[in-house]
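Hey, resending since the last one bounced:
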Amino acid sequence: MRLRPFRAADLDTLYQIDQVCFPPGVSYSREELEDFIRDQDSVTWVAESGADLVGFLVANQETPHAAHIITIDVMEAWRRQGVGRALMDAAEAWAGVQDLPLVYLETAVDNTVAQRFYESRGYERYQRVENYYHSGAAAWVMVKRLKRESAPAARGRASS
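The structure tokens again:
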């Protein structure tokens, strides 16, 4: 499995993956997914194994201080094999390079498997949002503060 940037030819397959990974009312329409991916402030990583696409993640810079994980989708056969971890690592590293101290995402309140995964990565439940999904289901907004690299200590004495 390797990660690579999104290519236009991936769109139909990513849409199909999203439809399989999430129920109606939670999954995105093709148009919504395309709009998220093509947004100038977004970045999309695709996980592939050989010629097969096995997952993807779309993130964007929502504010000058926060990255938003719009969606992370991993085919069921590839879950618990490091695909989600690799995708989240890529997104968090990107956020760090963009100097964004905060990463957040939404997950359905009944998706306890996803919540445990995010919590294991340092995300915390921040706010419950009722009627978040088209289906009417509620979501948790989960937040992670990224550690900032501190500047190396100056050596020697400062001149006056």
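Residues 150-160 have pLDDT under 50 and may be disordered.

Sorry for the duplicate.
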